[in-house]
Write the C-alpha cells for this entry.
Amino acid sequence: MLSSGGEPPRQKLGPDQAAAEAGFTDARARREYFQLALAAFFISFMYSHGALLAVVFARENFDLHAIGLLLSLYAFPVIVFTFLSGAAAARVGVLNTCRLAVALMVIGFFSLRYTAADFWPALASRLVQGAGQGLLLSGFVTYAQSRLNERRFVYLIGLFSSSFALAQAIAPPFGAMILNAFGAKAMFLEGAIPGCAALALTFGLRPMPCPREPRGISFAGALTHSRVPALAAVFVNGTMFGFTAAYLAAFLQAKALPIGAFFLASTTTLFATRFLAMGALQALDRRVLVAGGFFSQGAGFVLLAFAGQTWLIVVCGVLFGIGYSVVYPVLSGWMSEGVEPAERAGPQALLNTAFNIGIFLMPYPQALLIGAVGYGATAMILAALALCAAAAMFALSFVRAEK
C-alpha cells in the first residue's frame, strides 16, 4: 500500500535493529553500555578525590617526603595490575574483573578513613586501591567494546571513556567542600558511596564469552607489527597527560596564571570534540587522526612554554583538549581491530600499561628535566616529542596509502 505521496511506508525497525543502527550489537547491549558508563562515572567520582590526599596527609602531619611516597608509590600497583588485567580477565572473565577492580578501589579508598594517620597502614590502603585501578580501565573498555558493532565504534568508545573524565571536573571541589566542612573521615565516607553504587551497577549485565585459552594472558594479536605504533603512541599520549597532571598547576602558579583557565578549557573541549565531532572524524584514517591529535597537543605545549596571558592559556587548553580527546579512543579501537571480543582484554591491557607508564612513571624524569632546564624548556621538549610522533603517524599513513 502506498502513502499519499506515492512512496511505500517505511517499516518500523525492531528494538534490535534500531540498536544496531545506533552502533550497538542489540537492544540490551545499548542499556548495558550506558549502565557501565554510569558505573565508570561513579567510580571515577570516588578516585578523583585523590587530588585531595596531599591535603589530608599534610593535616595528619606527614612531611613532604612521606607524602611524596604515599602519592608516588601508587604507580607501581597500577602499572603491574594493568599489565595483569588481561590474565585476570582470561581466568575469571571480563565482567568479574570489572567488579574486582571496583571492589578493591572502594576498599582501598574507604579504609583510608581509618589508616590515613599512620604511614604504613595508609600505604597499604593506597596499594590496594592502586591494584583496583590497574584492573579498572582495561576491563571496563573491553566490556564496553563488546556491546558495540563497527557502525560507530570509535565514536561510542570515545563517549564511554569520557565518562571517566567527567567526574574529574566535579569530584575534587565537592570533596574539598566536604573535607573543609566535616573533615577527612566524612570525605572518605562521601567518596565511597558512589564507589559502592558503581559496584552495584556492574550487576545485571550479561557476561562476555570466555577466551579460547582461559589460562593464558590473552595477548592475542597485541604485539603484531601493525599494533606496535599504537603502543608507542599511547605511551607518548600518557607522557603528555602525565606532565599536565603532575606539573602544570605548579608551572602556571609560577607564572601567576590561573590554573583553572587551562583545565576548564581542556575538559570542555574534550567533551565537545567527542560528542560533536568524533562521529565525523572516525571516518578518517586512524593514523591521520592520531597524528592530528599529537600535532594539536604539541602546538598547545609550544604556546604553553611562552604564554604570559590568561587567554593564551585558554588556547593551550583548547589545543590540548582537542588532541587528547582524539588519541586514546582511536588507539583503543586500533588495538581491538580484527580481534574477537572475548580476546580483547590482553591487547587492551598492553595498551593501558603503556598509557599508565607514561602517566605515572614519566613524571620522575620530567622532574629531572624541570630541575635542569626549567618548566618552559621541558614543555618545549614534550612539544617536540608530540610533533615527532605526529610526523611518524603521518608517514605511516602515506606508506599505507602507497601500498
